[in-house]
Write a structure and sequence with these properties.
Elements lengths: L15 E4 L2 E4 L2 H6 L11 H11 L5 H14 L4 E5 L2 E6 L2 E7 L6 E5 L23 E4 L2 E6 L2 H21 L1
Antiparallel strand pairs: 1-2, 3-4, 4-5, 5-6, 6-8, 7-8
Helix pairs in contact: 3-4
Length: 170
């Protein structure tokens, strides 16, 4: 249920993609493979995300879906796609918030300033985090760890706040 606003079949899989110029209906074979009939290079970011989530096997998939919906609902200016084999959100043509799904009993949201390392002044982190959610890896890179549905729901509002603050400084 990654995008509750998209039609789903009886198994809960997204069966129709919203694209700028209409809809691309998936056949059952395409749905199973996560493909829309287009080559991977031509899938829109939203199509990449939907195909990825349809195929994702992760113990925290429902939690990941809730966080994806939270980000999409609160920040429509963020453009989803798949980067580093995980959902990532672009802002002003740079990746800014990326999921790290390597853990089995947790997942991370990585807050960064794009794919390429940029020279930044040393010192204080980019934002003051009144929520206490961010764990700083560098002055311009931080993570939020999420462990279960209770944790996701408890951090939902604070996470939306942190994303807003992150977008203001970059």
């Amino acid at each position: 249920m990654i995008c509750s606003y998209l039609p789903q079949d009886e198994s809960g899989r997204v069966s129709v993609f919203n694209v700028k110029r209409g809809c691309v209906k998936m056949t059952s074979d395409q749905s199973k493979s996560g493909k829309s009939g287009k080559s991977d290079a031509k899938l829109t970011g939203i199509e990449q995300l939907e195909a990825f989530m349809n195929d994702l096997e992760h113990p925290l998939k429902p939690e990941i879906e809730v966080v994806l919906e939270n980000i999409s609902a609160n920040y429509p200016q963020l453009k989803p796609h798949i980067k580093w084999n995980a959902p990532s959100f672009r802002y002003r043509e740079e990746d800014r918030v990326t999921f790290n799904l390597r853990g089995k009993d947790y997942f991370l949201l990585v807050f960064h300033c794009g794919a390429k390392v940029k020279q930044r002044a040393e010192g204080a982190p980019l934002i003051d985090d009144p929520t206490g959610l961010l764990e700083w890896a560098a002055v311009d890179r931080a993570t939020v760890k999420l462990t279960d549905m209770g944790d996701v729901l408890a951090k939902k509002d604070k996470l939306a706040e942190v994303i807003g603050m992150w977008l203001e400084v970059i």
